[in-house]
Amino acid sequence: MRIDDDGAGCVRVAAPAKLNLFLEILGKRDDGFHELVTVMTTVDLSDTLRVTRIESGIRLACEAPGVPADATNLAWRAAELAIERYGGGYAIELEKRIPSGAGLGGGSSDAAAVLLAADRLEGGACDPDTWSAAAASLGSDVPFFLYGGTAICRGRGERVEPVHDVPERHFVLVTSDIHCATGSVYAAVDTALTPSDTHLSIVPEALLGGDHRHLAGAILNRLEEPALRTHPALRRLRDDIGEWSDRPVYVTGSGSGLFLVAADAEEANQLRSTLDSRLRSRGRAHALVSTREA
Q: Is 7 exposed, middle or buried (0-12, 13-18, 19+ CB in 10 A)?
């Protein structure tokens, strides 16, 4: 994550979205969560947080409609963890650009941003390992966002293995007003399917290689079919985008974000323009590039 000093006792953090390039469910855990293995990469669609050290308490301000500014927000809960460690308090101004309910991890990224901001304000090294265990208590994706870049994540997603030296990759993301509740998508997973992580190594290899078509052919998301089945409008949107672009379209996370792989920035922008002209009121296309480690 990019962290910049923004005056005395204040830092500004860009909290990126993520895409799931691989997601396999290996079974149900005793704690009720699903055991999974996933490959995630951060992209340059981001929220912005301005975090200021204050004497005590937590203040959270966000003008985006539907975003809570209380203890139900993961950024608030992250500030509580920071106060447990450092004392004092934090004021957070949150500017949302990552849509909620799109499988992009915006809330988790915001929480990781608060933890790293607290470290910077307290003179720490912003080392992801410092917060990894505590971050897992906030949500499965929060530890990943402490590292950023590309990583293989296991367990509930909290065990993070960074994949280094991945070249920039270009994507086109389509967001819409369709909201996929994570719980309902997981509940629709077909448990009769035989899980396997043998396909896992193909995605990092494709990311490190040069051919975008190899990467597109390697993408797998076990939550894609449950998301499409429980949200027929998402399936129709996915199918239309595939027809307009003449290439595979994928669901990220539990949806509703849809994405395509592009060869380079020029093609990504061309695809974005084409899709925007077709989508009209049904959604918005974004040309994105993957980002490196925190």
A: exposed
